[in-house]
Design goal:
globular, single chain, Rossmann fold, alpha/beta, 12 strands
């Protein structure tokens, strides 16, 4: 079967391409940078140069494909021009859907983020949760708009699409920029990570990259048309996460607990000096505000309806450490 994918040179996308090819599919990948894509598998992969703004190229690359995985998106911490989040995550998604309708694609799986559903303010987050807090960053709000667009195409134009919403992804890196949790694990092993946000009690959900890839494929095979599935793992506090990381790495670096106020000060300074040097900040005040909340989710819907199996955090960290 021919499968079209965006975001193939990204962290999740590269893993997904590898799995699809190993399952016997031929993958059509839309990529902006052919040199970066050179690290992807050669057999079973057809590369098309282009981006999400070029509808003609998308249509051509998607020809003959039965399935589409729209993984690409603007996940940047900061953009000088904030409209870039929406031109990529919303307008780009519209182009993918229009091309899919024209090419009579059987199904699309759209990669969103569990961040769209908001923090676990008032209870553990499920797919049915109504967000009760304003969006904290443009990435979340633009992905929410992308989801709304997907659902409108399902209802009004008959598009067969499923939404998957990963939580904090981590694991080995094939190509692309490592996920933030993978970067954290790597920095810790090198003695370059020494902080815990707040008092370490805030809870988040951590999902192994192999589970995210399998969740995409299972959503394609078994997901309900128009449905949303959280692709999550185990819920752990920062204190619990670092306890496991210390035990599995055999490294016991002293970690400093940092207040929100101190984190905000650092974020403001980091942003100021990064902009002066014409670079992107490592963190911004908007992202720091996310650390004030718990982000507990339930992956039960994906487990029960898609038959997704979850890798325990300890096992995932062990595999990640072995890959570094």
């Amino acid at each position: 079967m021919n499968v079209f994918i965006t975001g193939g040179t990204g962290y999740i996308g590269a893993h997904l391409i590898k799995e699809l090819i190993s399952n016997g599919h031929t993958v059509h990948a839309l990529v902006r940078n052919l040199e970066k894509a050179a690290a992807l598998p050669k057999e079973g992969l057809v590369l098309f140069k282009g981006d999400l703004s070029d509808l003609a190229n998308i249509k051509e690359a998607m020809k003959g494909c039965d399935q589409v995985y729209h993984v690409a998106g603007n996940t940047s911490i900061w953009e000088k021009d904030r409209s870039k989040y929406y031109t990529i995550n919303v307008d780009g998604t519209r182009n993918i859907m229009d091309a899919a309708l024209e090419n009579k694609v059987k199904r699309i799986v759209f990669t969103s983020t569990a961040g769209v559903l908001g923090p676990s303010y008032g209870g553990i987050v499920t797919e049915l949760k109504c967000r009760n807090l304003d969006f904290l960053v443009e990435y979340e709000s633009s992905k929410a708009m992308g989801e709304s667009l997907i659902k409108s195409y399902v209802l009004e134009k008959g598009l067969d699409a499923v939404i998957v919403s990963p939580t904090r992804v981590f694991g080995p890196v094939l190509i692309g920029e490592p996920a933030s949790i993978t970067q954290l694990i790597s920095k810790y092993t090198k003695g370059k990570w020494r902080i815990i946000p707040g008092d370490g009690s805030k809870i988040g959900n951590y999902v192994f990259v192999d589970d995210v890839v399998k969740g995409h494929i299972l959503a394609m095979e078994n997901g309900v048309k128009g449905g949303t599935y959280i692709l999550g793992g185990e819920n752990h506090s920062y204190n619990s996460f670092f306890k496991i990381l210390k035990e599995e790495s055999g490294l016991d670096y002293r970690l400093i607990k940092t207040s929100i106020g101190l984190q905000l000060l650092y974020a403001h300074l980091n942003t100021f000096f990064a902009i002066l040097r014409n670079k992107k900040p490592a963190i911004t005040a908007k992202w720091v505000h996310r650390f004030k909340y718990h982000w507990e989710v339930s992956p039960n819907k994906a487990v029960e309806e898609l038959q997704l199996k979850i890798t325990p955090l300890r096992e995932g960290i062990k595999k990640t450490l072995n890959s570094l």
